From TrEMBL:
One of its GO terms (biological process) is ATP biosynthetic process. PROSITE patterns: NUDIX (PS51462), NUDIX_BOX (PS00893). The keyword Ligase does not apply. Coiled coil: none annotated. The lineage of its organism: Bacteria, Bacillati, Actinomycetota, Actinomycetes, Actinomycetales. Keywords: Hydrolase. It comes from Actinotignum schaalii FB123-CNA-2. GO terms for molecular function: bis(5'-nucleosyl)-tetraphosphatase (asymmetrical) activity. This is Nudix hydrolase domain-containing protein. Residues 2-140 form the Nudix hydrolase domain.
Length: 317
């Protein structure tokens, strides 16, 4: 018997100094819950979470730090697991939203209404114990001043043509067709985290990995010569300084497109900013990340509070 996978988000905002979260009402189930739903074919959990929130509430969101998943058994006997993230609203005209496909609204019979509520009301309304526990966790982040986090996506460039098969310069070695397709899936992931700053090695395989997002969103791409393989071999301090600057910047969520040989230095910089629970999640051995794989570092001020590591679903667009 197969399992069912779904995704959702605890969407929050601060209004008139008050913490609020977004819940949905289903009259057919007589319940209040966080917006969530099953993956569509070829869809990963992150895009599923963003799509489901929009379909059920009309809100565009950007994902922040991950939350514990919730598992239970359906009446059919199948196991179901729902993956959640903290999330913040985005405006419809924001650049990350411009890079997303259009999502349909949920069928009127599926979701009766959505509503922003303060914490006390939400805890009273939520119908399920596990979701109330999740909200209490998020409230602790709020009370400790740890809820406003910023995602930094460290991306190893997608698959490039083999060095032995390329007669041109290393600077111009391109992505394979498979790598180019992977770059389009990476664009979707950058969108769901609300990326509004792009940094890359100037070499073609790195810029091509995040170019689809730059083109779709209108976010400009900044090339940094210190991030090339050759520069790193001569002076790893240049990579260290660049990554340090991106991690500790107080601005928008960012993505950096990188070469494999630079990753040991990159990981060392991330380690500096995280506690034990972060360091134990970081890759420890070369190649650190597969081609097209992403390490998402969730930053609160100068501290890494969580990390995620995954390779986007190849057909996630």
């Amino acid at each position: 018997m197969g399992s069912v996978h779904a995704a959702g988000a605890v969407v929050w905002r601060k209004k008139a100094g008050e913490f609020q979260v977004l819940l949905v009402r289903r009259d057919s189930y007589k319940d209040w819950s966080f917006p969530k739903g099953k993956y569509k074919p070829g869809e990963g959990p992150r895009m599923a979470a963003v799509r489901e929130v929009y379909e059920e509430t009309g809100e565009y969101i950007a994902l922040q730090r991950p939350l514990p998943s919730i598992g239970y058994t359906l009446s059919s006997g199948k196991k179901k697991r729902v993956f959640y993230w903290v999330a913040r609203p985005l405006t419809p005209r924001s650049r990350p939203v411009a890079a997303r496909p259009e999502f349909p609204k949920a069928h009127p019979g599926e979701i009766t209404r959505s509503r922003w509520m303060n914490a006390e009301t939400a805890l009273e309304k939520l119908s399920y114990k596990d979701e109330r526990a999740m909200l209490k966790r998020v409230l602790k982040y709020w009370e400790r001043g740890e809820l406003t986090t910023r995602a930094v996506l460290l991306v190893r460039h997608a698959r490039a043509q083999k060095r032995s098969a390329w007669n041109g310069s290393e600077k111009t070695r391109p992505l394979t067709p498979h790598g180019a397709a992977r770059a389009r899936t990476i664009s979707a992931v950058l969108s769901v985290y609300g990326v509004d700053r792009l940094v890359s090695s100037p070499w073609q395989r790195c810029t091509a990995t995040i170019a689809p997002y730059a083109q779709a969103s209108g976010v400009s791409l900044t090339c940094v010569a210190a991030l090339t393989e050759h520069s790193h071999a001569k002076n790893p301090g240049g990579v260290r300084k660049t990554i340090e600057g991106v991690l500790t910047d107080s601005g928008a969520p960012a993505a950096v497109s990188l070469h494999r040989p630079t990753l040991s230095t990159v990981i060392d910089v991330v380690k500096k900013h995280g506690g034990h629970h972060v360091r134990e999640k970081l890759p420890e051995e070369d190649p650190y990340l597969k081609t097209g794989e992403i390490l998402v570092v969730h930053m609160k001020d100068k501290h890494a509070v969580d990390v995620e590591r995954f390779r986007p679903v190849h057909t996630e667009l």
